[in-house]
Design brief:
565 residues, single chain, Rossmann fold, Luciferase, domain 3, 28% helix, eight-stranded mixed sheet, 28 strands, GMP Synthetase, Chain A, domain 3, alpha/beta, 16 helices
């Protein structure tokens, strides 16, 4: 911790990056090569189908990725070329990402939950030259959707696309059908393009990529408006891939089920990095289905699962919850609802004392798993190696005294290269810090305390109230499945503190019961004035499993005014 003047100001740094242990190669191709050399014949990933499971070893992941790289080079991919990947969590997603890296391209992950309008925005922004896609995802047919967006896709033959709407797009291939569709060729035909490209050329292109080069392009969830394209360097991504294994403390025998799309940075870094860096096995589920997830966990002897809070509740509510054997789960937070399963015995504590953004490719501050409570407190960790934080007045940008609240600003080795289409000097301040828009403070022990989005802070009766703090308390109330607190305009108080709750199935909750529970742990001005109950299907979720605050405020306001919702 440093002092800029005689008075301690809110500027805190992690240890120098050079002092961090446990890191390896810092390009995605180098990362893959290193884990393959370590774990070659071990099982790297498995995808269970209706009748059988497809399994790849680390060696097979390498050979499949090289095959994709050869095909991409045959399609004209060069250093920095953006390759769109529109797939669920399937084996080919992995070979597409690493294949793109081996070919020198930029893996551009596209959300399979996208509506046609949203997909058009992503394609417009990304400027992909190649699009590798899964045609059938739930009820979507992406071949038809793409043809509706650009009719030339339906009438052109593979390799012949010249689109005025998507002028960079030249090649499209799909992994899950045996017949081509206009300009979209089959996976087999796509891979066949690379048969004349030597593995030596792949090695040469991979070797030409530097850690500082662009490696991946992810998009924000868009909960506050138009998605932002976030470009990250190989080094930043790979640092996090190596780190997540250490942060979670995963061993070589870990078998990780990931239930959410790799097109979100957290699932990518935690699932892929945490598992492959440890030499474990990725157990894939294409889309989250709680009954299926539980069956997969039993059949594949899953020892670690990464899911969002509302998904924990769905697992507990699944019809086969008590019929499955989950005794293989070792890395399950002892406070998770899943830890209540009769076959689970866990004292493991997840690395939940942490803070991060897509702009820093996940965590920038953290306490690793199993850090004792007397060290973590209720904080969100200490800065990761190489990171610098400061807390500033959101209006003036000036540093505030240590312990004072303000906006969190961060810089470090995993910070993005920038947003697509936005000059870097409009994103970072003069010191190179990214201002996150999140509120928080550092305590005297150098621990970060995150208090939510600055525009989410509730101003009630002259006091600032953090909805994050309230929700952390209400989540412990018996019978509460999901809780999200918002501020609703009020003539007297400015904003009324309103908790919106989805009860657990069969729970009989009342406003008084929830409020009395909150009074035991919260100051009176923080206790919600109103408690509203909703069904989970009444709430609109973003891709990162967060309730859209603006939508919820509108619902709560209408409910309080006596309108139907």
């Amino acid at each position: 911790m440093s002092k800029n003047t005689s008075e301690a100001l809110s500027r805190v740094r992690g240890i120098p990056l050079a002092e961090e242990e446990g890191l390896g190669a810092l390009t995605l191709s180098g990362y893959l090569k290193e884990v393959v050399q370590r774990y070659g014949a071990k099982e790297a990933a498995v995808l269970r189908g209706a009748d059988e499971a497809e399994r790849w070893t680390y060696d097979e992941l390498w050979s499949r990725s090289v095959a994709v790289a050869r095909a991409l080079l045959a399609c004209g991919v060069g250093k920095g070329t953006r390759v769109g990947i529109l797939m669920t969590n399937r084996l080919e997603f992995l070979s597409s990402v690493f294949g793109t890296a081996l070919a020198g391209g930029v893996a551009t992950t596209l959300n399979t939950f996208s509506t046609p309008a949203e997909l058009q925005v992503l394609l417009d922004m990304s400027g992909c030259s190649v699009l590798l896609l899964e045609r059938n995802v739930l009820k979507k047919d992406f071949a038809v959707i793409l043809a509706d967006l650009e009719p030339e896709i339906a009438v052109n033959s593979p390799g012949k696309l010249a689109s005025l709407k998507f002028p960079f797009l030249r090649h499209l291939a799909m992994v899950d059908t045996a017949e081509s569709f206009g300009a979209i060729e089959t996976w087999a035909d796509f891979l066949a393009r690379g048969h004349q490209v030597s593995a030596a050329l792949v090695e040469a292109t991979a070797s030409s990529v530097l850690p500082a080069d662009p490696g991946v392009l992810f998009f924000s969830s868009g909960s506050t408006g138009k998605p932002k394209g976030i470009l990250s360097a190989h080094r930043g991504v790979c640092l996090q891939l190596w780190r997540w294994r250490k942060w979670l403390g995963l061993d070589r025998d870990v078998r990780s089920l990931t239930t959410n799309g790799f097109f979100w940075s957290g699932n990518f870094a935690i699932g892929i990095g945490g598992t492959l860096s440890a030499g474990g096995t990725l157990v894939l589920q294409r889309t989250f289905q709680p009954d299926e997830a539980l069956s997969i966990m039993e059949a594949e002897r899953v020892s670690y699962i990464f899911a969002w809070p509302h998904q924990w509740a769905q697992l507990v509510d699944a019809k086969n919850w008590l019929d499955v054997d989950l005794s293989s789960l070792r890395y399950i937070d002892a406070h998770s609802p899943v830890a209540t399963h009769p076959t689970v015995k866990s004292s493991w504590i997840d690395a939940t004392h942490s803070y991060g953004n897509t702009e820093t490719f996940t965590l920038s501050s953290v306490f690793p798993a199993n850090t004792p409570k007397d060290i973590t407190g209720d904080s969100h960790g200490k800065p990761a190696a190489g990171n610098s934080f400061k807390i500033v007045d959101p209006l003036t940008g000036q540093l505030v005294p240590m312990g004072s609240r303000g906006e969190i600003a961060v810089k470090g080795p995993t910070l993005m290269l920038g947003y697509l289409g936005i000059p870097l000097d409009e994103t970072l301040d003069e010191e190179g810090f990214f201002h996150t828009g999140d509120g928080g403070y550092f305590d005297e022990m150098g621990r970060l305390h995150w208090e939510g989005r600055l525009n989410d802070i509730i101003k009630t009766g002259g006091a600032n109230v953090s909805p994050v703090e309230i929700d952390a308390v209400l989540a412990q109330c018996p019978g509460v499945k999901i809780t999200k607190t918002v501020g609703v305009p009020d003539d007297l108080l400015g904003e009324l503190v309103v908790a919106c709750i989805v009860p657990q199935d069969g729970a009989e909750l009342t406003e008084d019961a929830v409020r009395n529970f909150a009074k035991q742990q919260l100051a009176s001005f923080k206790v919600p004035r109103r408690i509203l109950f909703f069904g989970a299907n009444e709430l609109e979720w973003t891709g990162s499993a967060k309730v859209k605050c603006s939508e919820l405020q509108a619902l709560a306001t209408k409910r309080l005014k006596g309108g139907s919702v």
